Amino acid sequence: MLVHAVILLSFSVLHAHARTGTESNEALHPQNVELATLEKRGLLQGLLGGSPSAGRSPSAGRSRADDSSAGYPTSLVGGLLDGVGSVLPLGTGGGLNDLLKGSPSYNPAASAAAPGRPSPSATNGDAPWTQSEAAYRQMITCPRGIGGQRGVVLLVPPTGGSGNQAWARSPYAQFLPQHGFGVCWVDNPTRSTGDIQLTAEFVAYAIKYLGGRSGRPLNVITYSQGGLNTQWALTFWPSTRRWVRNLVTLASPFHGTIAANAVCPLLEVIGGCLPALFQMLTNSRLVKALNAPVQGSGAVALVPTTSVYTRQDEIVMPQVGARPISYLNGASNIALQDICGAAHVADHFLIVGDLGAYAIALDALMSGRPANPATVDKSYCNQLASLSGQFASLGNDLKYIFSTVVGNVGDRVSSLLKTVTSLTVPTEPALQMYVCQKGFATGCTANGFAGPQGRAPILSSLPQALSGLLGSG
Questions:
Q1: Looking at 119, 132, 162, 224, which residue is catalytic?
Q2: Does residue 182 belong to any structural domain of this protein?
Q3: Which residue, 53, 208, 242, 398, is most buried by CB atoms nearer than 10 A?
Q4: Strand (E) positions, 99-192?
Q5: Is pLDDT above 60 for 364?
């Protein structure tokens, strides 16, 4: 990760130097004063020893506590120190201790709807809720409330990360309020490492709750698995669609990722894949059900959608060819390099802090339609201006990886011991009955999320993983 950062820094300095002859055109973009000018000048000031931007009002109206919602870092050195410091023993955001804890352990039955813990109101045609309304609601955070003359933007985090880690210091949380948007994010109890079907319930509830509270449709922006979770929510809770004005996804695995096909067999040596990673195999039952060739499935955009991806993605892949893995029928599918140039550096971890990607999202939000490459403000494509925030997220990137691979440390040890003693590993979670009732799959479970995850002999999933990796099934 640090080697990657050093290479990126070297490239970006050269790239920024090559652009100096064109940046005088910035005055032609009055819309860009808020970011391209502010960020470039703030960054240069930071390099000379200035402090991060100040003057933002303190967070208010929180529904959950946050511990690292400082402003967007404008100092490259400061961003790098923040990133490295966040994985030190006494670092920010819980530091090394937070990394080693991995993802939380969660028992869905403990928070299930029960007498005294009612579920949300049901809507005809929607999948059933399995958790109590209180369980869903406590996962919604709105640092500055849900005000904003342009409505609410709901941010959905990636695999292994919390909303605070992914979004609090991103351009989306820091700059969208300046355009009149209220910003919220939704978490889930396993940091998106558990069953995607359960994670999607928290997204569906957040959309309906915030839409009802604000009285107007939301814009939803997602990162990585967050896009898959949201598409599942829109598919099986169709009442959510009326509350979504725009969906913008960053590096979404709508069709899984061959990285999961490659990694899951290897992880059997430590007890197997976590549920969400298994479900992101390109030929998993969940991916096949979502993309079923049946009317109403999630194989097409269900709301106005912009899918942003980077051709340099090393996690959600492949992202090349006419139909990259993030391609969604009916959406505006935009490669970041088509906006910012082939030399623009942004891998899976950097895309969430990339100002070029932010510009694509902003075009969609401000216009009220999917982003149009012809109207995206390309003057945001400044590699150096993005770097401070990207470096500040280095520690969180390591936490995402650890949580995705290991999960909860205690649960991982138990799973490893069970694998050693039984020579079995966990299997992909069963599809919920509502999926089969829609006609998208067969062989669903009627037991909800009760009971332990299924297990199978070691390497029994290898043929499936290899088949997906080779693109044959």
A1: 224
A2: yes
A3: 208
A4: 140-141, 152-156, 182-186
A5: yes
Length of the chain: 473
- 313 flagged as catalytic: yes
**248 and 361 in contact (C-beta within 8 Å)?**
yes
Query: What's the CA gap between 366 and 181, in Å, rounded?
Result: 10
Q: Which domain holds residue 379?
A: 59-68+107-255+291-386+398-407
Asked if residue 133 belongs to a domain, the reply is: yes
**Do the domain assignments include residue 179?**
yes
Query: Tell me, what CATH number does 179's domain have?
Result: 3.40.50.1820
Residue type, 336: L
3-state secondary structure of 119: coil
> Of residues 297, 348, 363, 397, which has the active-site annotation?
348
Helix 76-85 with 36-47: angle, nearest 10 deg:
80
Task: Please give the full DSSP string across 37-49, using - where no structure is assigned.
Answer: HHHHHHHHHHHTT
Q: Is 105 annotated in the active site? A: no
Q: Say how many domains are in the chain.
A: 1
Give the strands of the sheet with 152-156, arranged side by side. Answer: 140-141, 182-186, 152-156, 218-223, 244-250, 305-309, 332-335
Helix (H) or strand (E) holding 166: helix 163-167
| Burial class for 73, CB neighbours closer than 10 Å (0-12, 13-18, 19+) | buried
* pLDDT-wise least confident of 49-53, 127-131, 305-309, 330-334: 49-53
CA distance linking residue 362 with residue 376, whole number of Å: 8
- DSSP tag of 241: G
E-strand ranges in 136-217 read 140-141, 152-156, 182-186
- Do residues 225 and 192 touch, judged by C-beta distance below 8 A? yes
Which residues have C-beta within 8 Å of that of residue 141, sequence separation ≥ 6? 62, 63, 64, 66, 163, 164, 184, 185, 186, 187
348 catalytically annotated = yes
Helix (H) or strand (E) holding 358, with range, is: helix 355-367
Q: Determine which one of 313, 347, 354, 411 is catalytic.
A: 313
Give the tens place of pLDDT for each residue, 35-62. 443 333 233 333 222 333 333 332 333 3
Q: How far is CA 381 from the centre of its chain?
A: 21
Using alpha carbons only, how large is the chain's radius of gyration in Å? 21
Whether residue 149 lies inside any domain: the answer is: yes
Q: Which two tokens stand for residue 203?
A: 């997204």
Report the C-alpha dihedral over residues 11, 15, 16, 17, rounded to 10 degrees. 110
Structural tokens at position 75: 């100092």
Q: Give residue-wise pLDDT tens across range 119-162.
A: 999 999 999 999 999 999 999 999 999 988 999 999 999 999 99
